[in-house]
Amino acid sequence: MSQTTPYETETRTFTWTTPGQVDLGALLEMTGLEQLQSMREGGMPHPPIMDTLGVTDLRPEAGRVVVEMPAAGFHYNPLGSVHGGVISTLLDTAAACAVHTTLAAGEFYTSVDLTVKFLRPVTIDSGLLTCEGTVIQRGRRTALAQAQLTDGAGKLVAHATSTCLIMRAGD
Question: Where are the transmembrane segments (predicted)?
Fold first, then answer.
């Protein structure tokens, strides 16, 4: 028995570059900031998650990254607001990429933790979401970063802190 639903549906199509196509040796010869700048300028592909989420901008500078994404219906949870996982992904991206900008050639990192505080609901009416990540402290083996997510009106909607483990190629 076939069931029909009275609900309106939408379709979304997007493309991405398959990960792993970048020469890892050449990548490790660049600093983290150079890597992110190359992604921004189109010299290297950006990660597929950016296309999946609909990220529209990534602006890196030393110790800081700004990521932008308009809130959209495909980000929604069943209750009619942007899913906390989408918000967490934006916060994680900004905080971790801020750490990424501090990497010397031959270094890489991985996230150890992410602590998120949701401060107000996010909906399509929230408009362009802007997430700024900054490095709080960078050591030899770990880095602490934070990220703040604001809506189109500039209101703070979520905040996160993240610890990253710094490694050298060959460790």
Answer: none
